[in-house]
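Deliverable D4.2, example record:
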Amino acid sequence: MVEKHKMIAGFEHLTYSSQMLKEQWENIFELFEMIINGGWTNRSILDFIKYIRLSKYAEIFFPGSSMGTLLISKPDKGRLNYQRTLAISFDNQKNTFKLSYSDWDTIDKREDYKRAILWEQECDIDELQMKFEEFIKWNKNWG
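Output generated by the structure prediction step:
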């Protein structure tokens, strides 16, 4: 097993309740408004974040970001777990979203990071919510 990310920040040591997770989705919405203005992603990601905020998923998943990519992980017993992350990024040239799920517990060496990617899909802007639902059906542990 390879540790994807050392958890050293204060917020990474909290135990998240469903209400705390919902608040994080509110915060990530505001952050992505700024990220969009910086040209890092497409405005339609806000529609997806709104969809999550209004669904049961807001109380289950933790949102993050990296360079305009929306990162979604599922806490384990309320504790953050970056080992299994769904990354949603926008390709400006293709005008599409890419969803990529990785599980770092499946590899033994950091160099094998490509093998940690277990599910990938690309979709048009208006298919993002549908592709996310397909991912949830595929990954039964996240549903």
